[in-house]
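Page 47, continued from p. 46.
Same chain as before, 127 aa.
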Amino acid sequence: MLDAFSSSFLVLAYLAAALFHLAIGLGATLADYFQVNSPTGRLSFSRRALSLGLFFVFMAIVGHYLAQLGLFTPILDAAGNAVVNWVLVAIATAQALIANTSKNIKQKRLWAGPTVAMLLAAVIVAF
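Result:
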């Protein structure tokens, strides 16, 4: 039960993060929330491309957790699924460290809490 709740939370959290990065990648003026301060609020092309790449990574993570919930057909066996779950714990750890040690106050206010919750949920799913 807790495993299913954690997976559902991770689906919603990574979907929100993916949509945030899609908006940035398409040119939304949200640079203040993405590790850099820009007078125009827009990012350079390379930062926007990075954000679009993160969109696709986060959507793949959403697909993984949806497969764990039984909404998609899993492509991994149990051992592969366990390995991927622990890799996702490592990714969530990196996200939490980046968000909570950022010097950008807006980024920290937006992502500090959700990334810690995502880390805890990822650990629950991995166990």
